[in-house]
Design brief:
The structure is a single chain. With 179 residues, the chain is an alpha+beta fold. The chain has one domain (53-178). Helix content is 58%, strand content 13%. It has four helices and four strands, in the order H-E-E-H-H-E-E-H. A four-stranded antiparallel β-sheet has the order 1-2-3-4. A hairpin with a 3-residue loop joins strand 1 and strand 2 (53-60). It is globular and about 50 Å long. One of its GO terms (molecular function) is aspartic-type endopeptidase activity. It is found in: Cell membrane. Pathway: Protein modification; lipoprotein biosynthesis (signal peptide cleavage). Its EC number is 3.4.23.36. The active site is at 130, 148.
């Protein structure tokens, strides 16, 4: 295996620190979902910002925006397999990144934690528990959870990296290869 800047395999060094971050996202996601079930499954929603944000409870049997939610149950295994395969890919990707990188592995750890948090629900329950509702008037964004936020933030970070920093990183790699 090539040396990607790993200075030993310390439990909190690279790449383990990113796996710990993913585990933190999973724990936070599951804890908030348990809280939401206890608070809102059989009770009223909680207005956080009236007319804009509330906590409620919803079960999503599909994927993003309830895609294939009414497909009859087979989608649980399809989305589970996709999440598992994607998580394996991200785990390897994190392992292979140089220790000097910070932004990209942080983004990947958020995505990994979010994917595994929702996978936990999907495999254990057959659906994903959502509880954050953003709305304005009659417009409602699909209800989501902490895992969805982590995935979205991580994906946005990767896009920012690609659009604004990828050329700089490749230029730095070229300079070090020439030396």
């Amino acid at each position: 295996m090539p040396d990607n800047g790993h200075k030993g395999l310390s439990l909190f060094g690279h790449p383990w620190r990113w796996y710990w971050l993913a585990l933190l996202v999973i724990a936070l996601d599951i804890a908030t979902k348990v809280w939401a079930v206890d608070e809102f499954m059989h009770g009223p929603a909680m207005q956080i910002i009236p007319g804009l944000l509330k906590f409620t409870y919803a079960e999503n049997y599909g994927a993003a925006f309830s895609f294939l939610a009414d497909a009859g149950g087979w989608q649980r295994w399809l989305f589970g397999a996709i999440a598992l395969g994607f998580s394996a890919m991200v785990t390897v990707w994190l392992w292979r990144l140089p220790a000097s990188k910070r932004w990209e592995p942080f983004a990947l750890a958020l995505i990994l934690g979010g994917a595994l948090g929702n996978l936990w629900d999907r495999m254990l329950l057959g659906y994903v528990r959502d509880f954050i509702s953003v709305y304005y008037g009659s417009w409602h964004f699909p209800v989501f959870n902490v895992a969805d936020m982590a995935i979205s933030i991580g994906a946005a970070m990767l896009v920012i990296e690609l659009l604004f920093f990828a050329e700089k990183d490749s230029g730095d790699a070229k300079k070090s290869a020439e030396v």
